[in-house]
Amino acid sequence: MTVPIDLPAEPGAEATARAHPNIALVKYWGKADTAQNLPATGSLSMTLDIFPTTTTVRLDGALPADRVVLNAAERTGVVADRVVRLLDEVRALAGSSIRAHVTSINTVPSAAGLASSASGFAALATAAASAYGLDLDARALSRLARRGSGSAARSIVPRFAVWHAGTDAQSFAEEVAAPDLAMVVATVDAREKSVSSRDAMKRTVLTSPFYPAWVDSTAQSLEAALAACRDGDAERLGRITETNALRMHAVIQSCDPPIRYLSPTSVALFDRAAELRADGIAAYATADAGPNVVLLCAADAAETVRDRVADLAEAVVARPGPGAMLLPASERVAG
Ligand code: DP6
């Protein structure tokens, strides 16, 4: 019997990582390749400094299968399968077949369109790569996180991130300079959404007659948004953000059968952004695949914007946050 002499990871190896959600200013909605999770267009986002996910990956040579515990509940089915698929990618890179315990605490209201999969898969990719002994740079980590969930590619990156479309090797996120901005997260409804963004995205590509126009216009919006970032033009960036969000919701609503994520309160929040602008406060609304609305504004206007929407929804200020990071063993998530 031959004994492998360079085992890439010791059974019992463990790592803990933390990542934050991100909110896209120019959205990712539609895949060019489902197997590799490549987006049809690039996108631009702000990583938040609130609602982190912390994840521990512990290798265990005695485990017959991976164990996934999220927010203290053992997971099976679709959620666990997605985690296992990412671990399989990591094992393939590391040349390992050892199974792992994954324990994760997610402080974002899960699956309510607040990018819980972004922080979740960014933290998982970072912890798993380290636990299996891989030494990946930020680009490689971003590409790995992308395999778990597209938007997770951007949560590897601090502050503002552009995620490039293109081939597997090209499709990672990296930091871009941006004006001094903040976001106000207005939680309209924290319950699980009825159609996942993954399924809704698929339905959009397959059934919306407007999908090709969405792809063309988003590619243009990304170029315009990056130019606004370069020019430090916060208001132009805000206008692009709100227009792109409403176009995404329009293309989603044009599916067959249709999907509508925005509720009357979400629409009221978009109207409130317009009222704020009429009052001279540059606030712009966006929303992901759910009813919650996020308002983009100048950093020094964030508290005012929060107070001006508080009658409609619970609102908190988020600032540009850190990229995914490894944590000391003392921060391990028990389970
Ligand atoms: C509306 O990243 O959750 O938040 O790659 O299938 O996991 P998968 O999709 P996901 O989609 C996010 C969609 C969005 C827009 C965005 O974050 O850009």
Automatic annotation (TrEMBL):
Single GO biological process annotation from the record: isopentenyl diphosphate biosynthetic process, mevalonate pathway
Span of domain Mvd1 C-terminal: 184-310
Every Diphosphomevalonate decarboxylase-like N-terminal domain range: 19-171
Annotated organism of origin: Microbacterium telephonicum
Superkingdom, taxonomy of origin: Bacteria
Alphabetical keyword list: ATP-binding, Lipid biosynthesis, Lipid metabolism, Lyase, Nucleotide-binding
InterPro entries: GHMP_kinase_C_sf (IPR036554), Mev_decarb (IPR005935), Mev_diP_decarb (IPR029765), MVD-like_N (IPR053859), Mvd1_C (IPR041431), Ribosomal_Su5_D2-typ_SF (IPR020568), Ribsml_uS5_D2-typ_fold_subgr (IPR014721)
Family to which this protein belongs: Belongs to the diphosphomevalonate decarboxylase family.
Entry's EC annotation: 4.1.1.33
GO cellular component, one term: cytosol
Protein name: diphosphomevalonate decarboxylase
GO-annotated molecular function: ATP binding; diphosphomevalonate decarboxylase activity
